[in-house]
Amino acid sequence: MLLPLPTPAEMMNWDRVTISSIGIPGATLMESASRESITALLAEFGSVEGQDIICFAGSGNNGGDGFAMARALIDLGANVTVYHTRPKKQYRGETRSNLLWAQKLDVPLIHLANVDLNTLPQPDIIIDALLGTGFDGQLHEDYLELVRTMNRLGERAFVFSVDIPSGLNGLTGTPQPEAVVADVTATFEAAKLGLIMPEAETYTGILHICPIGIPLKVQNDHPASHNLITGAIMDTLPPQTPDMHKNSSGHVLVVGAAPGMTGAAHLAAMSAFRSGAGLVTAACPEGLADSIKADTPEIMTLIMGSGNEWNEEMVNPLLKALTTYDAVVVGPGIGRSSHTQEFLKAFIPQCSIPLVLDADGLFALANYPELLNALPEQTVLTPHPGEMARILKTDIRSIQSDRLGTAKAFTAISEATLVLKGAGTIVTNPDMTCHSPFSEPNLAVGGSGDILAGMIGTLLGRALSPMHAACLGVFWHGLAGHALREDFPKRGNMASDIINMLPKVVTS
């Protein structure tokens, strides 16, 4: 259901504990890494017999993996030359051992200080073993030149990066300021956090996660702080039973709509149905009821006074009615009038059932920051970057440039579960952080967020925890967006297409 996504520091700790506490030699891990890398290379490229291969080996463990790979590639009939960044005598530990073994086996080893990079021959394959996930900061000029050389030669060669493309930040997935553009990346034991970031895909190419022998006990005793949501989470959908009925499938209440924005509440209600709710009711002022239903008799209504405006007088009747429902979605299209905002300010902290706060409900949260400390325990917030910027009193650029930092900052001020929407949606609470594997352009359409809110509302109403409901809803939503690529390869789908796709992808 969740795959660990260690940060570079956490991965280095796994290595350290495995070697120092368990006693598995570093050389054993390095040999496993090189053999798994060869397997990945052969799987994607095919036979290397007779192929000209250049390996760029750095001074750390990444370079050691490169030296070890060179030995194996020679035995497979390839013509391998290793260009190393330091004089041989400066290499240490397992990396030095692998250099010396390669030397004894007559692998050509050339110190880059003696090479004009512009005269390098064009290879068939490039092995990028220059910098590992421990790299941080900006590339020094000499390494930047090497990265550019690999990318130049890589235009006519197959590029294979060991652990991570050199120059890519293992935490954020961004180039510093440039990175190797690989066809394949073999990373070890677990994908490092930066490798699954949307920005990293341009550089990683096909990603292979290769086991190298880090014991599961080490991973469990030192858990990663981030996790990747996988398809296995779909197996945790509440099961169907022969005796189930509408009242056992969850009753979702949608509190939303304002003049001209009733479609948002309608979409949230319809997505609640399509994700399995037995009953869905829309709470709204009387004048908006027919528009929310939009000729959909399945959507029931809870009339909250006459006219078409929300006000504080509706708070107590709505609170009393909550015992009828299993979860409530607050905010889709509800508007930003002063009366509506006062209604939300009074209602939100008193909500007694699982709550999804979306859209203009989040606008109220930004207007009344004291609500952050008064959110009910089972609350899920679903902001897009603009809404998140408003809540944290910053700008969208700051949010998007540091989405991980944004998520962490929020957990420091609220116990609620946060769904920070966007490419690679982040789901977090003070205890854990999970990442969606999806970056789907087909979801970038008006109403998509209302649909996600309705889905999470349904899952909360089926007694899933806020974190579980949010992760499952985010993955399911992404899965539907991915499936829409087939019928809408250049986009063009509407939000209603996302809703109708939800039941179809459950069994795919």
TrEMBL record:
Species annotation: Pseudodesulfovibrio sediminis
Origin: domain of life: Bacteria
NCBIfam families: yjeF_cterm, yjeF_nterm
Cofactors that this protein relies on: K(+); Mg(2+)
Pfam families the UniProt entry points to: Carb_kinase, YjeF_N
Keyword Metal-binding: yes
Gene: nnr
Cofactor note: Binds 1 potassium ion per subunit.
Family, as annotated: In the N-terminal section; belongs to the NnrE/AIBP family.
Assembly, per entry: Homotetramer.
Function: Catalyzes the dehydration of the S-form of NAD(P)HX at the expense of ADP, which is converted to AMP. Together with NAD(P)HX epimerase, which catalyzes the epimerization of the S- and R-forms, the enzyme allows the repair of both epimers of NAD(P)HX, a damaged form of NAD(P)H that is a result of enzymatic or heat-dependent hydration. Catalyzes the epimerization of the S- and R-forms of NAD(P)HX, a damaged form of NAD(P)H that is a result of enzymatic or heat-dependent hydration. This is a prerequisite for the S-specific NAD(P)H-hydrate dehydratase to allow the repair of both epimers of NAD(P)HX.
EC number: 4.2.1.136, 5.1.99.6
Keyword field contains Nucleus: no
Name the UniProt record assigns to this protein: Bifunctional NAD(P)H-hydrate repair enzyme
Transmembrane parts of this sequence: none
InterPro entries: CARKD, Nnr, Ribokinase-like, YjeF_N_dom, YjeF_N_dom_sf
